[in-house]
GTPase Era
Amino acid sequence: MTDAENGAETAATRSGFVALIGPTNAGKSTLVNRLVGAKVSIVSHKVQTTRATLRGIAIHDNAQIVFMDTPGIFKPRRRLDRAMVLAAWSGARDADLIMLLVDAERGLKGDAEAILEGLKEVRQPKILVLNKIDRVRHEDLLKLAAAANEAIGFEQTFMISATNGSGCDDLMDYLAKALPEGPWYYPEDQISDLPMRQLAAEITREKLFLRLHQELPYSAHVETEKWEERKDGSVRIEQVVYLERDSQKKIALGKGGEAIKSISMAARKELSEILEQKVHLFLFVKVRENWGDDPERYREMGLDYSQ
Ligand SMILES: Nc1nc2c(ncn2[C@@H]2O[C@H](COP(=O)(O)OP(=O)(O)OP(=O)(O)O)[C@@H](O)[C@H]2O)c(=O)[nH]1
């Protein structure tokens, strides 16, 4: 029986990217794990080299909500930090909606204040989510909400506890309705696989920057192209490192391939620890001109993994 015969109305699908912004320890991972309903968020990232990372995908009513992480939004201290902050904000600007998560117990001190300042420049619709309300008196929450809304006109303010779930259903109802109508970005059955592939790409990117950060542009990008589980329990992973120029490719390879070899070894070691299986990692370095200027880059970063 079709939906129409059944008398049920088929609502249009919605989908979009939600940039999750918040100071360290605000509860981003805890919240995504709760909203996504599975532990796909896996790691909290140690090094802030990511422009926009997929944290998890939630399905609510007819909407597919893709949570993106934009680490590195904090007060810049060194030159490198400043480049990362800029990149992090550019990730946020590509999202359909920005969700600022604040630890209500800590309030707007420190990084939260700097983030609010930065958010003023961003045009996307923004919502405020005060987390850890289980620890804060209601009247203090109201004061905090008022102070934050004075700095920025948020579309909505939510008060939640990521650990006990209070307020989370209302938040999801809102997100599902706020995202644009359109087809889902990811096929439902591939969702579980995506974060692992992206995580693997991110680990390699982290190693790349740890070794060569002053010599490579921030736009350097890694994609996981193949992921093959083998009968002997090991996994074969093929990744491409995309750079913008031949000169950068030379740097990434190093003399006699020595740089890429050590990057690959470091990435393989970490991956096999996380996956708890033997990993065969193959890295290819390719030049893709103007990659850094491509406005579709961000979407592609997600979509490429499902192909
Ligand atoms: N009481 C309380 N604690 C919470 C809540 N949400 C998160 N926490 C705790 O806050 C701490 C930080 O949570 P995380 O989810 O790791 O925070 P995060 O923002 O992902 O942190 P980074 O990855 O370091 O940026 C953990 O100890 C959580 O258990 C909440 O609603 N109430």
User: Anything to note?
Assistant: Residues 22, 24-30, 44, 131-132, 134-135, 161-163 surround guanosine-5'-triphosphate (CB under 6 Å). The beta strands are 14-21, 53-60, 63-69, 97-103, 126-131, 156-159, 221-229, 235-243, 279-287. The longest strand covers residues 221-229.
